[in-house]
Amino acid sequence: MNKYNTAVIGAGPAGMMAAIIASQNGKRVALIEKNAQPGRKLLATGNGRCNLTNKYISTGRYHGASPEFIKTVLGQFNQTAAMKFFNNLGLVLKEEDNGRIFPRTNQSSSVAEVMRLALVEHGVHILLNTQVKAIERQGVWKVLLNNQSALKTDSLIIATGGRAAHYLGSTGDGLYWAQKLGHSLTPIHAALVPMETVETWPKEIQGIKVEAGIRATSNDNKIGETTGDLLFTSYGVSGTAAMALAGSIAPLLKTSRVRLHIDLFPDMTKEELDLIILHIFQNAGKRTLRGSLIGLLPDRIIPVVARFAKLDEHKQAGKISHANRLEIVRVLKDITLTVSKLRPMKEAQVTAGGIDTREIKPQSLESKLMKGLYFAGEIIDVDGDSGGFNLQWAWSSGHLAGMSAE
Ligand SMILES: Cc1cc2nc3c(=O)[nH]c(=O)nc-3n(C[C@H](O)[C@H](O)[C@H](O)COP(=O)(O)OP(=O)(O)OC[C@H]3O[C@@H](n4cnc5c(N)ncnc54)[C@H](O)[C@@H]3O)c2cc1C
């Protein structure tokens, strides 16, 4: 039976980082992955472009564990260190809006490939198409594999991800093993996931994407606010802005009425928007309401807005009263949707919840319950906002576990 100093389960971003760092530290390392290639989810990130970190990482952009835990982990390998790490692997980076960092190639495969090459160059023993079936503590760790074989290791890093997008490999196996070893899990639900709505009008305008402000309320109390892409779909809403609110909405859905208040003009006050519409109507000649607003709004949204403002879309724009115009402005600044449920976990980008961080040492990511057992990545009860925060968590926690593994 092969014997290693460190075995890492899961060749996602966290596991690959942990394996590279442990091997750099002179350890004999095995990296075990059930997929045929490492980093399958990494390849899907950022719409295939991989938003690998963010210039503005801060604990406020993370949820789940206590800010002190997150700060301790991020502080040991922050975004600057991660960017330097990738530069040293030959990956050229670029910054986009809101501090988001991407590979200059615009291809997530560049990130996955420089990491794979680093693993090979550091002599990490990569076992692909190899599913871990069980782990046992027998003095050292024994890892049982799907092909009836097993390996032994002094330290074990579990980096099997959460439950989001399970078709890419993260089926929650590590969460199950951790629980069997005595660890507690915090409630697990989807974060960064689209939402279904009670109202069916989004179906009428499915496929339309707008830049919107969204305020989420629970029984009329504000629970979150974002600005960004909003995509109308056959079932409700998607897009980065809508998905970003899912994590805070999920725990409240069963017990309260959750609504999304959509502002289609977040960059304007009501007065500014009213002046623009007044100008349009004054110059509309014989055009209808729909015809006159065609340069202001995506065409298919106009009938929806007209309906909410209780106006006939065929009415002549020049004949619309001041009060009706103000009603149009009110609707454009606050169209409301009621959330019925979140889309399933397989459509989520991230899992909220995971291994309770009160049972993990923040200085090393070693289990407080089992010596020689470490965790890294999304399996831990930490989830970040959209914008490169989740991959930074994978890099930081993977690096720390790889440094610490004895
Ligand atoms: C569509 C999509 C887009 C995203 N875009 C971004 C983005 O642009 N920026 C960002 O910061 N975050 C993004 N994320 C989130 C980010 O990808 C994850 O947070 C990150 O991949 C988590 O890394 P991880 O290593 O912890 O887990 P994972 O990437 O899930 O890797 C876990 C690995 O463990 C393997 N594994 C599981 N069980 C076993 C087993 N029993 N035996 C062997 N191997 C096993 C899996 O096959 C998998 O390869 C996106 C997520 C999705 C789904």
Number of domains: 2
> Strand percentage, roughly?
25-35%
**Overall pLDDT:** 97
Shape: elongated
CATH fold-type name of the largest domain: FAD/NAD(P)-binding domain
Query: Which small-molecule species are bound to the chains here?
Result: flavin-adenine dinucleotide
In CATH terms, what is the architecture of the largest domain? Answer: 3-Layer(bba) Sandwich
Largest sheet: 7 strands, mixed
CATH superfamily caption of the largest domain: FAD/NAD(P)-binding domain
Structural class estimated from helices and strands = alpha+beta
> How many distinct beta strands?
20
Approximate helicity band: 25-40%
Q: What's the gyration radius in Å? A: 25 Å
The helix count comes to: 13
Query: What is the CATH C level class of the largest domain, in words?
Result: Alpha Beta
Cα-to-Cα separation, first versus last residue = 20 Å
Please outline what is shown here.
This protein is an alpha+beta fold and 406 residues long. It has helices at 13-24, 40-48, 67-76, 79-88, 108-121, 173-180, 201-204, 240-249, 270-282, 289-292, 302-308, 322-333, 389-404; strands at 2-9, 29-32, 53-54, 62-64, 93-95, 100-103, 125-127, 132-138, 140-145, 150-158, 189-191, 195-197, 209-218, 221-232, 236-238, 258-263, 335-342, 350-352, 373-375, 382-384. The strands form five sheets. Strands 1, 2, 7, 8, 9, 10 and 19 form a seven-stranded mixed sheet that branches. A six-stranded antiparallel β-barrel has the order 12-15-14-13-16-17.
